Amino acid sequence: MKNHPLLAVRVTTPAVELRAASDDLLDELADVVRAGKAHADPAPYDDPMSLYEPDPELRVARWLRSIWRGRGRVEPDAWRLYFVVVVGGRPVGMQDLIGVHFRTFGTVTSFSWLADDHRGRGVGQEMRAAILHLAFDGLGASEASSDAFTDNHGSNAISRKLGYQPNGSDWATRQGEPGLLNHWRLTRDNWEQRRRDDIQLHNVEACHALLPLS
C-alpha cells in the first residue's frame, strides 16, 4: 500500500521475517486464528483479548477489528506497530511493538503470539530479538518492557535470555480469572551487550517520518 509507508517496514533475521501487518497478510493469518492455534494452556493473555472468543468466525472478526483500531491510533503517548511473523514463507504469528510515552521517555513494550505448531523451536525468542532490534537500533528506544503470567514459562524464559531484568509483579485477569503477572525491564545498555549483527531493518525511515518519536 504505497500511501501508507509503515506497511513496508520489515525486520529480517536468519530464521524469521517480521512483515508489517497488511490486510493481505492478516487475511492469510486468519486461518491460524480461526483454527485456535493462537491459544495456549495455561492461558497466556490478559483480558480483554479477542483470541479468547470461542466462536471461530467471531474470533477472527474481533481480532481484525482490534488490529484495525490499533493501527489507526498514532499519538505521542501511544502508538503500535503490528507485524506478522513469517517462517518459511508462511504466516505463523504476530509480534507487535508498542510505544508508551515514547517521545518523553523512549519506552516501548511488546506483545506477541505464535501458532502452537511452531512453538518450542526458538521462533519466539527470534521474533522478540527482531522487534527489540527495531526498537533500539531503528527507533532509538531507551528501554523496553514485557509482561507475562508467572506460569507462562516460555515468555519468561525468553525475557531472561534476552537480558531483561525482573521489575516487580501485578495482578491481572485472564478469561475472568485472576493471575499474577511478571514485569520485565530491558535497558538499552543491557540490550547493547547482546546486540546482534545478523538482524536487518528495512524501510525503517517510514517510522521516523510517520510516528511521533521525538
UniProtKB/TrEMBL annotation:
Keywords: Transferase. The keyword Transferase applies. GO terms for cellular component: cytoplasm. InterPro entries: Acyl_CoA_acyltransferase, GNAT_dom, Ribosomal_N-acetyltransferase. Gene3D superfamilies: 3.40.630.30. The keyword Transferase applies. It holds the Pfam family Acetyltransf_3. Residues 16-191 form the N-acetyltransferase domain. GO terms for molecular function: protein N-terminal-serine acetyltransferase activity; protein-N-terminal-alanine acetyltransferase activity. This is GCN5-related N-acetyltransferase. It comes from Kribbella flavida (strain DSM 17836 / JCM 10339 / NBRC 14399). The lineage of its organism: Bacteria, Bacillati, Actinomycetota, Actinomycetes, Propionibacteriales.
